[in-house]
Automatic annotation (TrEMBL):
<dbReference type="InterPro" id="IPR029044">
    <property type="entry name" value="Nucleotide-diphossugar_trans"/>
</dbReference>
<protein>
    <recommendedName>
        <fullName>Nucleotide-diphospho-sugar transferase domain-containing protein</fullName>
    </recommendedName>
</protein>
Length: 290
Protein backbone atom coordinates (compact mmCIF):
# COMPACT_ATOMS: atom_id res chain seq x y z
CA UNK A 1 0.00 0.00 0.00
CA UNK A 2 1.21 3.50 -0.87
CA UNK A 3 0.46 6.15 1.76
CA UNK A 4 0.77 9.92 1.42
CA UNK A 5 0.99 11.33 4.94
CA UNK A 6 0.19 14.81 6.27
CA UNK A 7 0.52 16.23 9.78
CA UNK A 8 -1.62 19.23 10.74
CA UNK A 9 -1.54 19.60 14.51
CA UNK A 10 -2.16 22.77 16.48
CA UNK A 11 -2.00 25.67 14.03
CA UNK A 12 -5.23 26.22 12.02
CA UNK A 13 -3.07 27.61 9.19
CA UNK A 14 -1.74 24.10 8.54
CA UNK A 15 -5.23 22.94 7.58
CA UNK A 16 -5.53 25.29 4.62
CA UNK A 17 -1.98 24.53 3.50
CA UNK A 18 -2.79 20.84 3.65
CA UNK A 19 -6.02 21.27 1.70
CA UNK A 20 -4.16 23.00 -1.12
CA UNK A 21 -1.43 20.35 -1.15
CA UNK A 22 -3.96 17.52 -1.30
CA UNK A 23 -5.93 19.22 -4.07
CA UNK A 24 -2.73 19.74 -6.06
CA UNK A 25 -2.02 16.02 -5.80
CA UNK A 26 -5.54 15.00 -6.75
CA UNK A 27 -5.61 17.29 -9.78
CA UNK A 28 -2.27 15.92 -10.96
CA UNK A 29 -2.56 12.14 -10.85
CA UNK A 30 -4.15 10.30 -13.76
CA UNK A 31 -4.58 6.98 -11.94
CA UNK A 32 -6.30 5.77 -8.80
CA UNK A 33 -5.05 8.01 -5.97
CA UNK A 34 -2.95 6.62 -3.18
CA UNK A 35 -4.16 6.35 0.37
CA UNK A 36 -3.95 9.77 2.06
CA UNK A 37 -3.46 9.82 5.83
CA UNK A 38 -4.16 13.12 7.57
CA UNK A 39 -2.92 13.17 11.15
CA UNK A 40 -4.71 16.11 12.71
CA UNK A 41 -6.45 17.25 15.87
CA UNK A 42 -9.03 19.05 13.70
CA UNK A 43 -10.36 16.45 11.20
CA UNK A 44 -13.73 18.16 10.89
CA UNK A 45 -12.05 21.22 9.36
CA UNK A 46 -10.55 19.10 6.58
CA UNK A 47 -13.78 17.17 6.06
CA UNK A 48 -15.80 20.37 5.83
CA UNK A 49 -13.83 21.34 2.72
CA UNK A 50 -12.74 18.02 1.23
CA UNK A 51 -15.91 16.10 2.07
CA UNK A 52 -15.96 12.36 2.62
CA UNK A 53 -13.51 10.69 0.26
CA UNK A 54 -12.89 6.92 0.52
CA UNK A 55 -9.12 7.18 0.03
CA UNK A 56 -8.62 9.89 2.69
CA UNK A 57 -8.28 8.64 6.26
CA UNK A 58 -7.98 10.47 9.57
CA UNK A 59 -6.20 8.23 12.09
CA UNK A 60 -7.78 8.67 15.52
CA UNK A 61 -5.35 10.14 18.03
CA UNK A 62 -6.47 11.13 21.54
CA UNK A 63 -5.48 14.49 23.08
CA UNK A 64 -3.37 12.59 25.61
CA UNK A 65 -1.58 10.74 22.83
CA UNK A 66 -0.92 13.96 20.94
CA UNK A 67 0.68 15.45 24.04
CA UNK A 68 2.76 12.34 24.67
CA UNK A 69 3.94 12.33 21.05
CA UNK A 70 4.76 16.00 21.14
CA UNK A 71 6.85 15.73 24.29
CA UNK A 72 9.22 18.62 24.79
CA UNK A 73 10.14 19.00 21.12
CA UNK A 74 7.30 19.79 18.72
CA UNK A 75 9.69 19.28 15.81
CA UNK A 76 10.01 15.60 16.71
CA UNK A 77 6.24 15.03 16.54
CA UNK A 78 6.42 13.79 12.96
CA UNK A 79 8.62 10.88 14.08
CA UNK A 80 5.83 9.55 16.29
CA UNK A 81 3.34 10.04 13.46
CA UNK A 82 5.58 8.05 11.13
CA UNK A 83 5.92 5.26 13.70
CA UNK A 84 2.13 5.06 13.98
CA UNK A 85 1.70 5.05 10.19
CA UNK A 86 4.31 2.32 9.74
CA UNK A 87 2.55 0.11 12.29
CA UNK A 88 -1.05 0.65 11.20
CA UNK A 89 -0.63 1.36 7.47
CA UNK A 90 2.38 -0.71 6.38
CA UNK A 91 3.81 -0.23 2.92
CA UNK A 92 5.51 2.66 1.16
CA UNK A 93 5.33 5.82 3.28
CA UNK A 94 5.71 9.33 1.89
CA UNK A 95 5.38 12.13 4.46
CA UNK A 96 5.04 15.69 3.19
CA UNK A 97 4.71 18.94 5.11
CA UNK A 98 1.47 20.83 4.55
CA UNK A 99 3.22 23.80 2.89
CA UNK A 100 3.77 21.86 -0.31
CA UNK A 101 2.38 21.85 -3.85
CA UNK A 102 2.62 18.78 -6.06
CA UNK A 103 4.20 19.40 -9.45
CA UNK A 104 4.63 15.86 -10.78
CA UNK A 105 2.91 12.54 -10.15
CA UNK A 106 4.91 10.88 -7.33
CA UNK A 107 4.25 7.36 -8.65
CA UNK A 108 7.99 6.92 -9.49
CA UNK A 109 8.84 7.96 -5.93
CA UNK A 110 6.59 5.28 -4.47
CA UNK A 111 8.09 2.72 -6.86
CA UNK A 112 11.60 3.64 -5.71
CA UNK A 113 10.56 3.48 -2.05
CA UNK A 114 9.24 -0.05 -2.63
CA UNK A 115 12.81 -0.95 -3.67
CA UNK A 116 14.24 0.48 -0.44
CA UNK A 117 15.10 4.03 -1.56
CA UNK A 118 14.84 6.75 1.09
CA UNK A 119 13.74 10.27 0.23
CA UNK A 120 14.00 13.74 1.70
CA UNK A 121 12.91 16.94 0.00
CA UNK A 122 16.14 18.49 -1.22
CA UNK A 123 19.82 18.57 -0.34
CA UNK A 124 20.67 21.95 1.17
CA UNK A 125 24.36 21.35 0.68
CA UNK A 126 27.34 20.31 2.74
CA UNK A 127 26.77 21.60 6.26
CA UNK A 128 30.26 23.09 6.53
CA UNK A 129 29.75 25.15 3.35
CA UNK A 130 26.05 25.97 3.58
CA UNK A 131 24.25 29.14 4.59
CA UNK A 132 25.02 31.14 7.72
CA UNK A 133 22.97 28.89 10.01
CA UNK A 134 24.41 25.68 8.54
CA UNK A 135 27.97 26.89 8.99
CA UNK A 136 27.19 28.04 12.53
CA UNK A 137 25.80 24.61 13.37
CA UNK A 138 28.81 22.93 11.80
CA UNK A 139 31.24 25.01 13.87
CA UNK A 140 29.31 24.19 17.03
CA UNK A 141 28.90 20.44 16.41
CA UNK A 142 32.06 19.54 14.47
CA UNK A 143 34.21 17.12 16.40
CA UNK A 144 31.47 16.02 18.80
CA UNK A 145 30.23 12.44 18.97
CA UNK A 146 26.83 10.92 19.77
CA UNK A 147 26.19 7.32 20.78
CA UNK A 148 22.92 5.93 19.41
CA UNK A 149 21.86 2.29 19.42
CA UNK A 150 25.45 1.07 19.61
CA UNK A 151 26.66 3.36 16.86
CA UNK A 152 28.83 6.46 16.98
CA UNK A 153 27.76 9.39 14.84
CA UNK A 154 29.63 12.60 14.17
CA UNK A 155 29.57 15.69 11.98
CA UNK A 156 32.41 15.73 9.46
CA UNK A 157 33.32 18.08 6.57
CA UNK A 158 31.27 15.96 4.14
CA UNK A 159 28.04 15.79 6.15
CA UNK A 160 25.12 16.94 4.00
CA UNK A 161 21.95 18.58 5.29
CA UNK A 162 18.65 17.61 3.68
CA UNK A 163 15.31 19.34 4.14
CA UNK A 164 12.82 17.11 5.95
CA UNK A 165 9.71 18.65 4.38
CA UNK A 166 9.48 15.29 2.62
CA UNK A 167 10.38 11.93 4.14
CA UNK A 168 9.93 8.71 2.22
CA UNK A 169 10.85 5.14 3.15
CA UNK A 170 9.32 1.64 3.31
CA UNK A 171 7.56 0.82 6.57
CA UNK A 172 9.98 -2.02 7.31
CA UNK A 173 12.63 0.66 7.86
CA UNK A 174 10.58 2.24 10.66
CA UNK A 175 12.85 0.58 13.23
CA UNK A 176 15.28 3.43 12.50
CA UNK A 177 12.84 6.06 13.77
CA UNK A 178 13.58 5.50 17.47
CA UNK A 179 17.29 5.90 16.74
CA UNK A 180 16.63 9.07 14.74
CA UNK A 181 14.52 10.45 17.58
CA UNK A 182 17.25 9.67 20.11
CA UNK A 183 19.84 11.32 17.88
CA UNK A 184 17.58 14.34 17.45
CA UNK A 185 17.17 14.68 21.21
CA UNK A 186 20.94 14.54 21.68
CA UNK A 187 21.50 17.12 18.95
CA UNK A 188 18.91 19.44 20.51
CA UNK A 189 20.59 19.02 23.91
CA UNK A 190 23.93 19.93 22.34
CA UNK A 191 22.67 22.89 20.32
CA UNK A 192 19.03 23.97 20.50
CA UNK A 193 18.19 24.86 16.89
CA UNK A 194 14.96 24.00 15.12
CA UNK A 195 16.64 22.17 12.23
CA UNK A 196 18.09 19.47 14.47
CA UNK A 197 15.23 17.16 13.50
CA UNK A 198 16.13 17.32 9.84
CA UNK A 199 19.82 17.05 10.68
CA UNK A 200 19.08 13.85 12.62
CA UNK A 201 17.23 12.36 9.64
CA UNK A 202 20.01 13.49 7.29
CA UNK A 203 22.79 12.00 9.41
CA UNK A 204 21.08 8.67 10.02
CA UNK A 205 19.84 8.15 6.46
CA UNK A 206 23.26 9.02 5.02
CA UNK A 207 24.90 6.24 7.01
CA UNK A 208 22.73 3.69 5.19
CA UNK A 209 22.66 4.73 1.52
CA UNK A 210 22.42 7.85 -0.67
CA UNK A 211 19.29 9.93 -0.11
CA UNK A 212 17.09 10.72 -3.12
CA UNK A 213 15.54 14.17 -3.55
CA UNK A 214 11.78 14.63 -3.95
CA UNK A 215 12.13 18.27 -5.03
CA UNK A 216 11.36 17.63 -8.73
CA UNK A 217 7.97 16.26 -7.69
CA UNK A 218 6.83 18.65 -5.00
CA UNK A 219 7.43 22.32 -4.18
CA UNK A 220 8.06 23.11 -0.52
CA UNK A 221 7.41 26.78 0.24
CA UNK A 222 8.80 26.65 3.78
CA UNK A 223 9.93 30.28 3.59
CA UNK A 224 6.51 31.77 2.83
CA UNK A 225 4.67 31.93 6.14
CA UNK A 226 3.24 35.29 5.04
CA UNK A 227 0.94 33.52 2.59
CA UNK A 228 -0.96 31.69 5.33
CA UNK A 229 -3.60 34.38 6.03
CA UNK A 230 -4.20 34.66 2.28
CA UNK A 231 -4.73 30.91 1.98
CA UNK A 232 -7.22 31.11 4.83
CA UNK A 233 -9.16 33.87 3.09
CA UNK A 234 -9.27 31.95 -0.19
CA UNK A 235 -10.49 28.76 1.46
CA UNK A 236 -13.12 30.61 3.47
CA UNK A 237 -14.37 32.49 0.42
CA UNK A 238 -14.38 29.76 -2.23
CA UNK A 239 -14.70 26.37 -0.49
CA UNK A 240 -18.49 26.51 -0.69
CA UNK A 241 -18.29 26.83 -4.49
CA UNK A 242 -16.71 23.40 -4.95
CA UNK A 243 -13.21 21.96 -5.03
CA UNK A 244 -12.57 22.82 -8.68
CA UNK A 245 -13.29 26.51 -8.08
CA UNK A 246 -11.28 26.50 -4.86
CA UNK A 247 -8.28 24.89 -6.53
CA UNK A 248 -8.38 27.39 -9.39
CA UNK A 249 -8.37 30.30 -6.96
CA UNK A 250 -5.52 28.80 -4.95
CA UNK A 251 -3.37 28.30 -8.04
CA UNK A 252 -3.89 31.94 -9.01
CA UNK A 253 -1.92 32.95 -5.91
CA UNK A 254 1.25 31.91 -7.81
CA UNK A 255 2.86 30.60 -4.64
CA UNK A 256 5.73 29.00 -6.58
CA UNK A 257 6.74 32.39 -7.98
CA UNK A 258 6.43 34.10 -4.60
CA UNK A 259 8.51 31.34 -3.04
CA UNK A 260 11.32 31.94 -5.53
CA UNK A 261 11.17 35.72 -5.10
CA UNK A 262 11.44 35.51 -1.32
CA UNK A 263 14.18 32.89 -1.58
CA UNK A 264 16.20 35.14 -3.89
CA UNK A 265 15.95 37.96 -1.34
CA UNK A 266 16.79 35.60 1.55
CA UNK A 267 19.93 34.40 -0.25
CA UNK A 268 21.31 37.90 -0.82
CA UNK A 269 24.46 38.79 1.12
CA UNK A 270 23.56 40.03 4.59
CA UNK A 271 24.89 43.53 3.84
CA UNK A 272 22.61 43.75 0.82
CA UNK A 273 19.54 42.71 2.79
CA UNK A 274 20.41 45.22 5.51
CA UNK A 275 20.74 47.99 2.93
CA UNK A 276 17.40 47.11 1.36
CA UNK A 277 15.74 47.12 4.79
CA UNK A 278 17.18 50.56 5.57
CA UNK A 279 15.85 51.77 2.22
CA UNK A 280 12.42 50.33 2.97
CA UNK A 281 12.81 47.86 0.12
CA UNK A 282 12.94 44.55 1.94
CA UNK A 283 10.94 41.77 0.33
CA UNK A 284 7.28 41.80 1.26
CA UNK A 285 4.33 39.79 0.11
CA UNK A 286 2.72 41.84 -2.68
CA UNK A 287 -0.91 42.87 -2.46
CA UNK A 288 -3.07 40.02 -3.72
CA UNK A 289 -6.49 40.67 -5.20
CA UNK A 290 -8.86 37.94 -4.08
Amino acid sequence: MNSLIYLAYGLPDLINEGIYSILSYQRLVQHAPVQILIYTDQPAEFQHVLGEQPHIHYPVVSPEQWQAWRGSRVYLLKIEVLKHAAKHYPGNLLFVDTDTIWQQDPAPVFQAISRGQRYMHVCEGVLAQGNYLSQKIYRHLHGKHWQVNGRTLTIDPDTKLYNSGVLGFPSQDAHALDSIKELGEQLYATYNKHIMEQLAFSMWFQTQAPIAEAAPYVLHYWNLKEIRPVLTQVVQRYASQGLDVLYKQLTQLNIAQLHQQELAYRNLPSWRRTLLKLQGRRWRLPAIDL
